[in-house]
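Task 17 of the worksheet. Students: predict the tertiary structure of the chain below and write it out as structure tokens. Keep your answer in the requested format; marks are given for formatting as well as content.
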Amino acid sequence: MIKSYKNTVEEFNQTINSLQDKHTDLTQKNLELETKVKDLTAEKNQLQRDFDSLNKKGPVCFFMSTELKSWSDSRQYCRDRGADLVIINTEEKQRFISSLVSERVWIGLSDTENEGVMTWVDNSTLKQGFWLKGEPNNAYNEDCIELNYNRKKTGWSPLNSWNDHSCSAKKRGICEK
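Model answer:
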């Protein structure tokens, strides 16, 4: 009977040890899950803040035309895709658009309707420009505006990169949707 009691006690101790090991494992897994939940919650909150910020600014998408086109054909390319040539009305946007391009591109500004009065594709007038030195100069009846990507040119900067150019010149356009 004592032997049976010892066996029962030994089995009981083994069961307790096994349960303690399982408890330790479950406690560790619980801590890991709590950490994952905390991390995912923080990520979700950041994504929500980013989403809310985007909604305040309005969702925006920029893309380039795939072929070299005149200013009006570039605009039509954008419009066929539910967009229009980009309107750049802040320094922040000018810097951003300049960082996207690696060639001369059409933007949504021209003075085709009224010489000397720069108008955006949404019919608003230009309030702030980012012209290359000496531009716009209408040198050869130039009515359409390009963002002139020429980082090697003396005096070029993202805030000094617009040039008036012949509207029939072929280049890609940058669209905004």
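Marker's comment: The mean pLDDT is 86. Residues 2-57 form the longest helix (56 residues).
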